[in-house]
Amino acid sequence: xxxxxxxxxxxxxxxxxxxxxxxxxxxxxxxxxxxxxxxxxxxxxxxxxxxxxxxxxxxxxxxxxxxxxxxxxxxxxxxxxxxxxxxxxxxxxxxxxxxxxxxxxxxxxxxxxxxxxxxxxxxxxxxxxxxxxxxxxxxxxxxxxxxxxxxxxxxxxxxxxxxxxxxxxxxxxxxxxxxxxxxxxxxxxxxxxxxxxxxxxxxxxxxxxxxxxxxxxxxxxxxxxxxxxxxxxxxxxx
Length: 238
Hints:
Blueprint: H1 12-25, H2 38-45, H3 49-61, E1 65-68, E2 72-75, H4 92-116, H5 119-137, H6 143-156, H7 160-168, H8 170-184, H9 190-207, H10 211-230
Antiparallel strand pairs: 1-2
């Protein structure tokens, strides 16, 4: 995966985020347990309280912890420790930041695609969606079909800026998809069925030229993909 880092150095806030994420995932910070104070975490990781506070805010945004006024921060959800079978600890915050960007960017692309597509782009979208459904139903990773679907959405905008940015993100997107699919193989089939439904909703909205619905469906899909990647298997639907 390509990392967007300045001079190869990672932000200290990212490091604290990744380390606390890992400690929650491996059970050292158990579900419902109170985290050490900001001061204690700062000492442990050699970081200032503002840096720790930033990392904790991101963990709250990801639904892993919650703050209780006057009491501190508590673990609310344990992410799947299997994630570290496929990525290094230091990659987690990069993956999250990519998802953050994709939510807004690809939602915008889907909305524009709904108004701009022509027959050739719709044919490409439908072919990629069909290949994705076939692959997931057959228990395959189907990363190529999934990446092709997202590229087709960008091309359907008929806007060179959306197309070029989507291409520049391709390696990062594929990395996240590979991770998500490998984790999905360890989980119930309902996970793959949900992914199929989300892509179908995006396709239907674009086909119907419903810009608002297409944008919302894409944003929802990427938010859900981000959540699915890091939630524990115990949170899977039956």
